[in-house]
Amino acid sequence: MSERQDSDDHLSTTGTGQDGDDPPRPHTSGKGDDASGAGDGPAPGARAFEARDRWQAAVALGLLALLTLAVAAVTTPWTVLTGGPPDAARDFTAAQIARARAFDAATSLPGYLSLALTLLFAAVLVATPFGARVLGRLRGPWWVRVVLGVVVITAIVEALRWPLGMWVETVLREYGLSIQDWPGWTADRLKNLAVGVVLNSLMLLGLVALARWVRRWWIPAAAGAFALTVAASFVYPVVFEPLFNEFTPMQQGTLRTDLLAMAARDGVPVEDVLVADASRRTTALNAYVSGFGATRRIVVYDTLLRAPEPQVRLVVAHELGHAKHDDVWFGTLLGGLGAALGAVLLYLVFGAVRRRAGVASVADPRAVGVVMGLMMLGTQLMNPIQNLVSRHVEARADVHALDLTRDPATFVAMQRRLAVSNLSDLTPDAVEYVLYASHPSSPERIAAARAWAKLNGVPVP
């Protein structure tokens, strides 16, 4: 696929991108709404308007970026207790460290290949007319073509990544982390894809509709992206999570009573403590907090309940730390601001790539390809920043658990259990740590617990 940046001829090969049910919308050129980009270009008045609009969007982008950075700076605990250089050999045997390294090596290659394929395909969508040509074959009203476009692009991406997913699943089974059969694995993966298609379709439908009706579409698009992110965070725990697991209230008993009492003592309102049936697919141990307000709940994997009760209480104390500090809410706020920033950035970047991508306007349903490509690239660029923030937030939750339980010995025992059971990377290299680590490494967390013990006059485990 050659680059033809200096010619508009190739744009017309995919059609005008308009259909009979198009509503009237503001024109930015004196030659109508031909999405092919053919003709002499916008009239001088339209060019002046576009230049002014782009300048305003650039200013808005800068203000949103400053606001996002300010919120991140204020809400992220940048100065968190640490214990100095971690020493995996102090707490784990040579065999455990070797097994963790072998597992990491076995999953790194398909992981990096998946990342490379995603970035490569995203670049193809953004820098070539491939997406416009493929989606130009779709027929129907514009909104049908938008949804079909999301389905087609998602299917192509998944077709590229599916064999790599099977590769990783095979490794997980070899190491005893996955106990799913292939039908169950396939069903979960398809459900995950369906959730992505639904959310992306809602977003793209709104974006294309705004671009067809509103001249400065990036303004309501930014507001809509923020609102959709907040709504999804609120709805996801009660609508989408049950698609993947069954959740039941933790059974009455000493453990449940202790957990609720601990939450009350901590001053954290918890709607419920639920148990997820994770054991039907994995042997990994986990717990998490999701939602906020009426949907906030602490979820414990049923696999975690096999651990001693003091260790379960400590893990839940960590999750209470997230609730205590409103981490879900602030994470949602940052996500919403990031989505709004992304909508404005999309407007600015689209103008620079639309000729290469073969689409003149976001109002064209064929633009779904380039928009999704830009989203993929943006997501990968933001992941290291999100992981940096997440690691500090998780470290604060660890300190909260220690403050609440005052039991660093159990904390260290639990970190050892989690690391060995989940085959956590005990000696991550710098690249993987930046790209993928959303939590401090287990040796880092253990070192922080020992530092906490020294500061608080508690026996060092």
UniProtKB/TrEMBL annotation:
<keyword id="KW-0645">Protease</keyword>
<feature type="domain" description="Peptidase M48">
    <location>
        <begin position="250"/>
        <end position="452"/>
    </location>
</feature>
<feature type="binding site">
    <location>
        <position position="322"/>
    </location>
    <ligand>
        <name>Zn(2+)</name>
    </ligand>
</feature>
<feature type="domain" description="CAAX prenyl protease 1 N-terminal">
    <location>
        <begin position="95"/>
        <end position="245"/>
    </location>
</feature>
<feature type="transmembrane region" description="Helical">
    <location>
        <begin position="57"/>
        <end position="80"/>
    </location>
</feature>
<feature type="transmembrane region" description="Helical">
    <location>
        <begin position="142"/>
        <end position="162"/>
    </location>
</feature>
<keyword id="KW-0812">Transmembrane</keyword>
<keyword id="KW-0472">Membrane</keyword>
<dbReference type="Pfam" id="PF01435">
    <property type="entry name" value="Peptidase_M48"/>
</dbReference>
<feature type="compositionally biased region" description="Basic and acidic residues">
    <location>
        <begin position="1"/>
        <end position="11"/>
    </location>
</feature>
<feature type="compositionally biased region" description="Basic and acidic residues">
    <location>
        <begin position="22"/>
        <end position="34"/>
    </location>
</feature>
<feature type="active site" description="Proton donor">
    <location>
        <position position="398"/>
    </location>
</feature>
<feature type="transmembrane region" description="Helical">
    <location>
        <begin position="111"/>
        <end position="130"/>
    </location>
</feature>
<feature type="compositionally biased region" description="Low complexity">
    <location>
        <begin position="35"/>
        <end position="46"/>
    </location>
</feature>
<dbReference type="GO" id="GO:0071586">
    <property type="term" value="P:CAAX-box protein processing"/>
</dbReference>
<keyword id="KW-1133">Transmembrane helix</keyword>
<dbReference type="InterPro" id="IPR027057">
    <property type="entry name" value="CAXX_Prtase_1"/>
</dbReference>
<protein>
    <submittedName>
        <fullName>STE24 endopeptidase</fullName>
    </submittedName>
</protein>
<feature type="region of interest" description="Disordered">
    <location>
        <begin position="1"/>
        <end position="46"/>
    </location>
</feature>
<keyword id="KW-0378">Hydrolase</keyword>
<feature type="transmembrane region" description="Helical">
    <location>
        <begin position="218"/>
        <end position="240"/>
    </location>
</feature>
<feature type="transmembrane region" description="Helical">
    <location>
        <begin position="193"/>
        <end position="211"/>
    </location>
</feature>
<feature type="transmembrane region" description="Helical">
    <location>
        <begin position="328"/>
        <end position="350"/>
    </location>
</feature>
<feature type="active site">
    <location>
        <position position="319"/>
    </location>
</feature>
<feature type="binding site">
    <location>
        <position position="394"/>
    </location>
    <ligand>
        <name>Zn(2+)</name>
    </ligand>
</feature>
<dbReference type="GO" id="GO:0046872">
    <property type="term" value="F:metal ion binding"/>
</dbReference>
<keyword id="KW-0482">Metalloprotease</keyword>
<dbReference type="Pfam" id="PF16491">
    <property type="entry name" value="Peptidase_M48_N"/>
</dbReference>
<dbReference type="InterPro" id="IPR001915">
    <property type="entry name" value="Peptidase_M48"/>
</dbReference>
<feature type="binding site">
    <location>
        <position position="318"/>
    </location>
    <ligand>
        <name>Zn(2+)</name>
    </ligand>
</feature>
<dbReference type="GO" id="GO:0004222">
    <property type="term" value="F:metalloendopeptidase activity"/>
</dbReference>
<keyword id="KW-0862">Zinc</keyword>
<keyword id="KW-0479">Metal-binding</keyword>
<dbReference type="InterPro" id="IPR032456">
    <property type="entry name" value="Peptidase_M48_N"/>
</dbReference>
